[in-house]
Amino acid sequence: MPFNLNIDLRQLNTFLTVADTGSFSRASEKLFVAQPALSRQIRMLEEALNVEVFVRHGRGVVMTAAGELLYERARDLLQSLERTQADVTAVAGEVTGQVVLGLLPTVTHTFSGTIVEQYRKHFPQVHLAVRSAMSGTLQQMVMQHRANIAISYNHANHKNLRYRPLLEERLYLISATDTKAAKRSEITLEEVLDLPLVMPEDKHGLRVAMEKEAAERKKTLNVPLEVSAWPMLPDMVRRGLGYTILSSAAVHDMTQRHEVVAVPITSPEIKRTLSLVTPTDLPSSVATTKLAEIIMQQVAEHVQAGTWNGKLLFDPARIEQSVCDSGSQSRKSRIAKEITE
Question: ∠194-216-210 over CA atoms, to 5°?
């Protein structure tokens, strides 16, 4: 069917860049286009649409109501075209495009290096960006399409998010090596709740979960030291300033160096589920699907090697060899379905 379009992709890209930078001069520098030529592109766009998309002021520009609508539609359109281009190219065997991966700080510390290393090894033509944030922020980033995929806890079951369970992991009491608790083979949750804990801020998923456990037992969580910066959390424990609660994988290197001890919590065991999160309103690109495969592969390898204590929630045999597979399109579709369903 014929399309009657009065605007082109270059104009839309120019518009988005001006909107993102808030200035014609900064957009000109970013696009390496002379400012008069850039201004002409915007003027042609406004004439084609018969509406102003920017209001100029002394410090730059702001979008009009029409500009805000155009921004959302243009961004989605160009992202869709970029995915289409990358996926069509992938049919010929070369995976291209760009992917933004969101990671939790603890996961970043645990195995992000191997994820990035393997992805770059197999798919060097893809531009990969890694962002670190807490679960709630990561899920919001995926919903807003600021991240293509994330590894997160705290299933919100949001209608705009698809969750693919990866791992059910057990939580441990993390202690300095010279405490009475460090000599224990296990410790009850009741005992843990009486200890001085070093915990992240109250909106953090782990803190919320432990506050709930304490409330159910008519106790108040004892948190004399609050630390939200991940590297500081186990370091404060190492220094003997309190205890914390984490997965064993989060402190694997430190336990190997005998800097801290991970003591299993019992009565009851405390567990949480780690999942891949993708948006439901956008199909995953080939580049994103391949990244998901590598993440699943790395999780499985860490569990099988004993560096991550947890129960796999997927069948690793179904993704084995898929990262390097150049087989039929039907096989690629099957793997994509396994990851996203």
Answer: 55
- Look at the chain and count its residues: 341
* Cα torsion angle, 174, 178, 183, 184, sign: negative
Residue holding tokens 């009565």? 267
For residues 258-294, b (16+ Cβ closer than 10 Å) or e, as one string? ebbbbbbbbeeebebbbbbbbbeebebbbbbbbbbbb
Residue 4, domain member (yes or no): no
Nearest 10 degrees: Cα torsion 172, 176, 179, 180:
20
Total count of domains within the chain: 3
| pLDDT, tens digit, 9 for 90 and up, residues 138-195 | 999 999 889 999 999 866 678 889 999 999 999 999 999 999 999 999 999 999 999 9
* Enclosing domain of residue 299: 95-167+272-340
> What does the angle CA 12 – CA 15 – CA 21 come to, to the nearest 5 degrees?
140
Query: 329-340 and 286-305 are packed helices; what angle lies between their axes, rounded to 10 degrees?
Result: 70
On whether both 119 and 178 belong to a single domain, the answer is no
Q: Any idea what the CATH number is for the domain that residue 260 is in?
A: 3.40.190.290
User: How far is it, in rounded angstroms, from Cα 173 to Cα 189?
Assistant: 9
Q: How far apart are CA 298 and CA 317, in angstroms?
A: 13
How does 44-63 read in b/e, with b if 16+ C-beta sit within 10 Å? bbbeeeeeebbeeeeeebeb
Which residues are CB-contacts of 298 (< 8 A; sequence separation ≥ 6)?
Answer: 111, 114, 115, 118
Tokens 């409330």 correspond to what residue?
215
Query: What's the pLDDT tens digit per position in 283-306?
Result: 888 899 999 999 999 999 988 888
